[in-house]
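Entry 12.
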Amino acid sequence: MSEVHRGTEPDGLPERVLTVTVNGQAVEARCPDRALLVEFVREVLNLKGTHIGCLTGDCGACTMMVDGRIVKSCLMLAASADGAAITTVEGLASGDALHPIQQSFWDHDGFQCGFCVPGHLFAALDLLAENPSPTDDEIRAAISGNLCRCTGYEKIVESIGAAAGLMAEDGAQVRAEPGLARRTEAT
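Predicted 3D structure (tokens):
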């Protein structure tokens, strides 16, 4: 349960201690009550892979997973994630090995500046968990909540399609583990 500490934030506003699991690691950290989850992750936990874009939930740059659900973290107060398992884009890889979706984005030039990548990676994870062999139209529908100003989406769609193929070749499936990123494992 969160504790409220009045007057401990520099401007005298209330803050609390949040206990969360981030990318499989238990974390306890102070956070202003008014902080958005994206701000908590970037500024308090210093995980910079999640980006702040529109602050309206339209661009997808702030996408992460909270308790196995994909969320736009600019629309969620950090305090509401107390006790949650959070996976950021940094938690997708396993050590030095990229997740197959990340590897496909790398191999197929699915990003340019990288700002939109968190939203597209998590949309791909969510899609492939439900539909391991999506059509291009299904991929486009799945990523429709994410904006990219660089690629024109063709390479993103190609990357997600390639990831589906790679995972099928390896006999892998996308699955969710409590407190951990969705990862592939051979069946």
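Annotation: The CA atoms of residues 78 and 143 lie 25 Å apart. Strands lie at 3-5, 15-22, 25-32, 63-66, 69-72, 85-87, 172-177, 180-186.
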